[in-house]
Design a protein that fits this description.
Layout: E1 2-7, H1 15-28, E2 32-36, E3 49-52, H2 81-91, E4 96-101, H3 103-114, E5 119-123, H4 139-160, E6 163-168, H5 175-183, E7 188-190, H6 198-210, E8 216-221, H7 235-239, H8 250-253, H9 255-267, E9 271-275, H10 287-305, E10 311-316, E11 319-324, H11 325-329, H12 337-341
Parallel strand pairs: 1-2, 1-4, 4-5, 6-8, 6-9, 7-8
Antiparallel strand pairs: 2-3, 10-11
Helix pairs in contact: 1-10, 4-5, 6-9
Bound molecules: 6-O-phosphono-beta-D-fructofuranose (F6P).
């Protein structure tokens, strides 16, 4: 049997651990492995693939990024794109595919499965917003980056008695902001799920000063929409730069910068902004990301070997469970109110 493996969408720490898990289990079973380069781009046109060997996956467990490369190429946008991918894989002797990715990559995987090709997914997104699964590769490491940044920003904020606005990733949901913000002791966390208005932020900051708290840390997810900020944000310019899945480049909209400017105007408190950006996606994966990426990678190979396709191994109740691919992309998993409200205890 020959198994193909690809990583698609934004990179995330732990992708290499998953590739290694897929490949090492395959070698253990006597299978061959084809590494597909740069996500779906590697199975369009003439294709871009290479055989993986024990040597090519050696030493990659602690590495960030992905040895296969990634892209946001979308075969669903090309006429007959999915059929092309399937026929290239079949023509290359690849019997089944492990697609490691988030909702975009897995939506292509689900379409391939509908088209009759055996595909198994592995959940990845630092946004942590796939349905059903309790684990997505990269989230734990990204939260670690946010927490370290907040620890560092606390000391400088305190020294200068400033407001620090920290913009973190999170396209549609605020998992990184919420969990990173709670773990890093943020004084206010603003996420897309529960829209806040500028007046409430200003009121909160004034209240804190009134209580003698002379600095504040605000974490805001990049996907937050606040009416009062729109004139100061580069919404239109960012919208021009959509990727193949139709997503705008949120970092270019500058919600953190706009928020810090408006806070300073409204309160007179000296305010600074830090945009963590792609630092959250780079570097070595945390132990949690390494272990679960490994477990799910190994499980993905086992599923293909058992001729179970159109499915994805996930974490549920701390264990591996297997669900249909369509289930994890059925909806975007939102931060629940209960977790959001936890910040009120520490404001
Ligand atoms: O979807 C994951 C994510 O990291 C989002 O949080 C962020 O908006 C986006 O990717 C950034 O993508 P790019 O790599 O295109 O800058």
């Amino acid at each position: 049997m020959r198994i193909g493996v690809l990583t698609g969408g934004g990179d995330a720490p732990g992708l290499n651990a998953a590739i290694r898990g897929v490949a090492r289990r395959a070698f253990q079973q006597g299978f061959q492995v084809t590494g597909i380069k740069n996500g779906w781009a590697g199975v369009l046109g003439a294709g871009d693939m290479e055989d993986l060997t024990s040597a090519s996956v050696r030493g990659i467990l602690p590495l960030g990024g992905t040895i296969l490369g990634t892209s946001r190429t979308n075969p669903l946008k090309e006429k007959g794109g999915v059929e092309q991918v399937i026929s290239l894989l079949r023509g290359s002797g690849v019997d089944g595919l492990v697609a490691i990715g988030g909702d975009d990559t897995l939506s292509v995987a689900a379409a391939m499965s509908d088209g009759g090709y055996p595909v198994v997914g592995v959940p990845k997104t630092i946004d942590n917003d796939l349905s059903v699964t309790e684990f997505c590769i990269g989230f734990d490491t990204a939260v670690g980056v946010v927490v370290e940044a907040l620890d560092r920003l606390h000391t400088t904020a305190s020294a200068h008695h400033r407001v620090m606005v920290v913009e973190v990733m999170g396209r549609d949901t605020g998992w990184v902001a919420m969990v990173g913000g709670l773990a890093g002791g943020a004084d206010m966390i603003i996420i897309p799920e529960f829209p806040a208005e500028l007046e409430a932020v200003v009121e909160h900051l004034r209240h804190r000063r009134g209580e003698g708290k002379d600095f504040s840390i605000i974490v805001v997810a990049e996907g937050v929409k606040m009416r009062a900020l729109e004139p100061a944000m580069a919404v239109a310019a960012a919208a021009e730069k959509r990727d193949a899945f139709g997503h705008v480049q949120l970092a270019k909209q500058g919600v953190g910068d706009a928020l810090s400017t408006r806070i300073e105007e409204a309160t007179g408190f000296e305010t600074r902004v830090t945009v963590l950006g792609h630092l959250q996606r780079g570097g070595s994966p945390s132990p949690v990301d390494r272990i679960w990426a490994t477990r799910l990678g190994v499980a993905a190979t086992d599923l293909l070997a058992d001729h179970k396709a159109g499915v994805i191994p996930i974490r549920r109740d701390g264990q591996i469970a297997v669900v249909p691919l369509r289930d994890v992309i059925a909806e975007t998993r939102k931060v629940p109110r209960e977790l959001y409200d936890l910040q009120l205890v520490f404001d």
